[in-house]
Amino acid sequence: MNPPSRKLRVACVQLRSHDDVAENIRVTSDLIRQAHAEGAAFIATPENTTLMAPDGGAKLEKSFTEETDPALPAFTKLAAELKTWLLIGSLAIKVSDRKTANRSFLIAPDGHVFARYDKVHLFDVDLPSGETYRESNTVEPGRRAVVADAPWGRVGLSVCYDLRFPHFYRALAKQGAEILTVPSAFTETTGKAHWHVLLRARAIENGCFVVAPAQGGFHANGRHTYGHSLIINPWGEILAEGGMEPGIVAAEIDLAECASVGARLPSLKHDREWQV
Q: Has residue 27 got a pLDDT over 90?
């Protein structure tokens, strides 16, 4: 017997953010309104929603503490106005004179912050293309995983580079996550190679939906992000996909599919302790 339907329309807001915080808030808010008008009850934005700065120092200079950040009250007010669930993929929240947190916010329809998550895994790489990233120079890593128990389902929070650490998502799934959120600003180089396969793998191996809003295109800081926001079901099928341009990517999901897939492939119950 199939479990009863638990349908929910979800939307990814795809952006091309730059270093003008106020303009990024305006553009993001307009797209959130559009997604809501199209029936989405859960709307997610990418990593670095309101700030893609030229470098870590410039980002730190334009960042705010959580108490003074102009984006957070704008988005909490908007969620309350629209009476919708809203995930702000991440904001750069100043936590010291030298560092920010890459912080994701899940906002409830009454406008209060329902859950916070600070990105745990930081992107420190030298790419063959010549691009170099040292996120740890100016970002303080998070220390804990977060699963939020929304009325319609459990949401496991993550940000971008976390995607490359499968055990992290296994932990979220073990805590009952049914939707894994992966707001991102993947580079064009790594996105073209790995974005689709990693996101589909996280959905398949954990029997979860994946909602992955992305930055896309050429930004004012010279960075080139991959775009292709994705919504994926627990069987690994892509339900909706964006291109490179800003806009809305939406799909209706049925959270009952998590239990259905789990019954057919109960791998979450088969994990065992082992040694190398």
A: yes
What is the pLDDT confidence band of residue 1, given thresholds at 50, 70 and 90?
Answer: low
> Which class for 151: exposed (0-12), middle (13-18), buried (19 or more C-beta within 10 A)?
exposed
DSSP element (H, E) containing 157 = strand 153-157
Mean pLDDT of 125-135: 81
Number of structural domains the chain divides into: 1
What CATH number corresponds to the domain at position 215? 3.60.110.10
- Give the mean model confidence (pLDDT) for residues 231-240: 98
**In 3D, which of 271, 237, 262 has the Cα closest to residue 251?**
237
What pLDDT does residue 143 have? 97
CA-CA distance, 157 to 146, in Å (whole number)? 6
Residue at 271 is within a domain: no
Question: Is 141 within 8 Å of 121 (Cβ atoms)?
Answer: yes
Q: Which residues pair with 7 in a beta bridge?
A: 254
Residue 17 domain boundaries = 7-265
Domain assignment of residue 47, yes or no? yes
The pairing of strands 179-181 and 238-241 is: unpaired
Q: How many Å separate Cα 107 from the centre of its chain?
A: 13
pLDDT of residue 2: 65
Model confidence band, residue 263 (pLDDT cutoffs 50, 70, 90): very high
**Strand, coil or helix: 196:** helix
Active-site amino acid positions: 47, 119, 160
Whether pLDDT at 127 is above 80? no
Gap between the Cα atoms of 214 and 181, Å rounded = 11
User: Side chain identity at 187, as an amino acid letter?
Assistant: T
Do 78 and 108 meet the contact criterion of CB atoms below 8 Å apart?
no
